[in-house]
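Fold this sequence, please.
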Amino acid sequence: MTVGSGVVYLLGTEGRGDRIPTKEEKRMPAMESREVRLKERPTGTPEEDDFEIAGVRVPEPKEGQVQVRNQWLSVDPYMRGRMFDRESYTPPYQLGEPMEGGALGVVEHSRDPAFPEGAWVLSNFGWREAFVAPGSRLVPIDPELAPPQAYLGVMGMPGFTAWVGLLEIGQLQEGDHVFVSGAAGAVGSTVCQIAKLKGASVVGSAGSPEKVAWLEGELGVDAAFNYKTVGNLNRFLPDVARGGFDLYFDNVGGEHLEAALFNMADFGRVVMCGMIDAYNALVPPRGPRSLLMAIPRRLTLRGFIVSDHQELREVFVEEMARWISDGQVTWKETVVEGIDQAVDAFLGLFTGENMGKMLVKV
């Protein structure tokens, strides 16, 4: 451990680490980097004081390793769940450790022939400016198919989530009437477009007039509404349900889920993707009063985790790349500059500040 300019730097070999460097490593030039760490586990809505930014030095790679300078970081709602110290489908963040998450970077130095210098790579080493990792933990991307940062959005996990949730879990059929909550987010906006491409009619909810205009004007959603201004959703939704939704793609939970269950068609499907409405709740949210409707309507409610469906990823990439090339799928990005603004970008997810994909440009 060395000290320079008042910042403590730790030398690591895989992302970061605390071991003592060898004499050979000491002679190698080190890359300076900053990373965002979880300082305290949030209670309720996260605050800036729950995080900290630390300086580190990233060494040259060893045999089989790659040194990467991140260019784009992904900011996603699911990260809130990893801040709890509890067992889940993905391990919790550890206090004092850098936050993991989707990131896109360029190879600076490589000792893995599969990753030449200058190549773009996708990783889970987000929330840091640079890192060293085995090549086996990196995924090469083709910037000719789409802009590189799209691999964190419509061509990446959010797009794959939308594709899997709608087509594999929801079993979308041509002619279905679909309701999408959080429709202007990274996942929701992709769901809306895929549903339209597959011959469905789509209703979407969003949180501002600008988002509603984007959904209807650019994405071709049949009807969109601002849930903040329509009043009681249980009273409003029948006006756009047209006798019942065949499929509800739930990104929000809470009042949206309750209202949707009251307005499903017989044998309707509910795809339970996310419930951002409850992510910061201090007490468990009340279950929807409309759950009883699942019986007479013969509904199917199914949650899913997109990482369980990696065998479908190549099919998704091929289809999404074709849609993008043909101009049939578009997207928006909300871009925040600098890793020191990553926490603000994350907090903005819970106040609806993003339209489309929230990204940090490093």
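Residues 165 and 300 are 13 Å apart (CA to CA). DSSP finds nine helices and 17 strands in the chain.
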